Amino acid sequence: MNLVSGFATGKARQIRRDAMLMAFVGLMAWLASAALLGAFAVWIAETYGLIAGLLSAAGLAILLAAFALIVRAVLRMRARRQQRHTLSSSAATLGVVTASSLVTRHKGVAIVAGLALGALAAYAARSDDD
User: Fold this and answer.
1) CA 105 to CA 116: how far, in whole Å?
2) Which alpha helices (DSSP H) does the chain contain, by range?
3) b/e 78-110 (16+ beta carbons within 10 angstroms → b)
4) Where in the sequence is the domain holding 69, given as residue range(s)?
5) Virtual CA dihedral for 26, 27, 32, 38, nearest 10 degrees?
6) What keywords are assigned to this protein (predicted)?
7) pTM of this prediction?
8) Per residue in 36-57, pLDDT tens?
9) How many CB atoms lie within 10 A of CB 57?
10) Less crowded by CB within 10 Å, the N or C end of the chain?
11) Which residues of the chain have a pLDDT value below 50?
C-alpha cells in the first residue's frame, strides 16, 4: 500500500464514520422534534380539542420547516459566495505563478514584450495629452 492509497482509505473510513454520525444525529433530532410536536399537540388538545391540537402541531411543523429551508438557502448562498471568492483567489494565484514561470523560461521574449508594452503605454499617454 502506497502513501496515496493509504490516505484515500483513511479518508474513506473518516467519511463513513462522519456519515454514520450525521445519520444518528439526524435520527435523534427527528425523534426529539416528533416528541416536542406531540407534546405541543397534546397541550393544545387539552384546551381546544383534538383537531385543534393536531392542526396547530401541523402548522408549527410547517413553520419550522420553512424556517429550516430559509436557513439552508442562506447558508448555501454564503457557501457559494465563499467558493467563488476562493476560486477567484486560486485563479489569480495560478495566473501569477504561470506568468512568473513563463517569464523565467522565456526571458528574452519577456523583455521584448515589456519594451513593447512600455512603448504602447507611452504612445497612449502621449496621444491622450494632445
Assistant:
1) 19
2) 3-48, 50-105, 107-129
3) eeeeeeeeeeeeeeeeeeeeeeeeeeeeeeeee
4) 3-129
5) 120
6) Membrane, Transmembrane, Transmembrane helix
7) 0.49
8) 888 988 998 898 988 888 888 8
9) 21
10) C
11) none
